[in-house]
Write a structure and sequence with these properties.
The protein is 65% helix and 0% strand. The protein has 80 residues and is mostly helical.
């Protein structure tokens, strides 16, 4: 293939190739990451409140007390 035919083929490909659209994101990636982290924290908090309050029979707001988590960690790390 000669140079001229190669150049002609490239030009033909450029003409037939559709122009690429530039995508403008509504939410930047860093904001998406923050939203996902926030939703994970929210899900864990609500899950702990449900588990401790409804299933455990305690007050759901007690999950925010340090003494509750100290008690839970003592039960988990109990040495026999």
């Amino acid at each position: 293939m000669t140079r001229e035919t190669y150049k002609k083929e490239l030009e033909a490909q450029k003409e037939t190739k559709p122009n690429r659209r530039i995508r403008i994101r509504l939410l930047p990636i860093w904001l998406r990451v923050l939203i996902v982290v926030f939703l994970i924290v929210l899900a864990v908090t609500l899950g702990a409140m449900f588990g401790y309050g409804v299933m455990g029979g305690g007050d759901a707001m007690e999950i925010f007390d340090k003494s509750t988590w100290t008690h839970i960690l003592d039960l988990v790390n109990k040495e026999e």
